[in-house]
């Protein structure tokens, strides 16, 4: 059904046709028109809010020096919360189609009997948009993201889509167990644990009959990294965060070995928490009871398919490759696989 959202135009048309019934509407009908007008004006209001949010993002990126290219720059949100310029770029820029490279990576590993699990780490801006701006209280949705996930899944690529999970958990658990914290670009240990458990569920069918080892977890309090605060102010900030530390079979922090059947590769999200045994690879080991080995390159999320260049022998006997990278980089180019 088509709804006319401009009753004043309708009245003018009826008057031109010599109709007088429009002006004799009952009070009930007037009430209906008022409600209809309110409904029709709601949509432009929402569009206006989205437009104002877009303008704020552009203004903030201009302060950093570019609205089209990544700049290592921190943007200040509300109540001390900090974000990277690239997060805003990812939310405003037209995405490149990087799915062919990812599909080729999946095919290359599959030919070797290895399963690829793609883990885009949900971006801080999308998980806690209300901490960026009041204009984003209703959230920031990226239609490009859903299309990206759907296209990969259509080509049988396993994608861990944890965005809605992290958003819901952050609202539910709040500051007691946050998915992100104000001064850091990487997600927290509890968020990494969510990602690890989802990845572990995808790996589980591959691990039947394998020897299992117990990797226990212990609650611990550690120093926060605060990389965004350091980048903005040029000095570190001292604060504590809660993490779950994974222990190896020797009782010390989890390390893993190159002989592990599960390999976790990617950018700094893979190395985050490694110094105290709370990295995503350790969490996957704890969830599967199967050893993992992590390969992390800071800023190298999109080069994952090239991390095995010249290392064919390393992949022998592997069951799964878990590829972890920042979801805020999905607008960019991804490298094609090289083995």
Task: Throw out a few tags for this protein.
14% strand, five-stranded parallel beta sheet, alpha/beta, globular
Describe the structure.
With 339 residues, this protein is an alpha/beta fold. The protein has helices at residues 7-16, 27-64, 85-92, 99-110, 124-127, 143-154, 163-173, 189-203, 227-233, 268-271, 280-288; strands at residues 74-76, 82-84, 115-121, 158-159, 217-223, 240-246, 262-266, 292-296, 320-326. The strands form three sheets. The chain has a five-stranded parallel sheet. Helix 2 packs across helix 3 and helix 8 crosses helix 11 (280-288). It is globular, with a radius of gyration of 25 Å. The N and C termini lie far apart (56 Å). The relative contact order is 0.13. Mean pLDDT is 87; it is low at 1-46.
The DSSP helix count reads: 11
Content of β-strand: 5-15%
Q: Estimate the helix proportion, in percent.
A: 25-40%
Distance separating the two termini: 56 Å
Enumerate the spans where pLDDT stays under 50 for 5 or more consecutive residues: 1-46
H/E topology pattern: HHEEHHEHHEHHEHEEHHEE
Question: What kind of sheet is the major sheet?
Answer: 5 strands, parallel
How do the strands line up in the largest sheet?
4-3-9-7-8
Structural class: alpha/beta
């Amino acid at each position: 059904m088509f709804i006319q959202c401009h009753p004043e135009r309708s009245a003018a048309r009826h008057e031109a046709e010599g109709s007088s019934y429009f002006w004799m509407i009952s009070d009930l009908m007037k009430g209906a028109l008022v409600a209809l007008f309110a409904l029709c004006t709601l949509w432009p209001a929402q569009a206006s809010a989205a437009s104002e949010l877009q303008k704020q993002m552009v203004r903030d990126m201009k302060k950093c020096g570019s609205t089209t290219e990544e700049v290592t720059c921190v943007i200040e949100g509300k109540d001390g919360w900090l974000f990277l310029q690239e997060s805003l770029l990812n939310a405003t820029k037209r995405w490149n189609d990087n799915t062919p490279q990812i599909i080729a990576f999946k095919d290359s590993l599959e030919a070797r009997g290895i399963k690829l699990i793609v883990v885009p780490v949900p971006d801080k801006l999308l998980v806690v948009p209300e901490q960026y701006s009041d204009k984003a209280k209703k959230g920031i949705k990226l239609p490009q993201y859903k299309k990206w996930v759907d296209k990969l899944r259509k080509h049988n690529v396993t994608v861990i889509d944890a965005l809605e999970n992290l958003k819901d958990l952050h609202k539910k658990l709040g500051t007691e167990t946050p998915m992100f914290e104000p001064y850091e670009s990487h997600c927290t240990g509890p968020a990494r644990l969510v990602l690890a458990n989802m990845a572990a569920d995808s790996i589980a069918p591959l691990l039947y009959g394998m020897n299992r080892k117990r990797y226990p977890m212990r609650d611990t309090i550690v120093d926060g990294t605060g990389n965004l605060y350091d980048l903005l102010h040029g000095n570190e900030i001292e604060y504590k965060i809660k993490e779950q530390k994974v222990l190896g079979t020797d009782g010390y922090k989890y390390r893993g070995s190159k002989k592990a059947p599960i390999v976790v590769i990617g950018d700094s999200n893979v190395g985050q928490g490694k110094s105290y045994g709370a990295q995503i690879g350790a969490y996957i080991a704890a969830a599967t009871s199967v050893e993992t080995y992590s390969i992390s390159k800071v800023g190298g999320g999109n080069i994952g398919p090239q991390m095995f260049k010249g290392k064919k022998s390393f992949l022998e006997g592997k069951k799964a490759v878990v590829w972890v990278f920042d979801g805020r980089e999905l607008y960019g180019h991804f490298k094609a696989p090289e083995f």
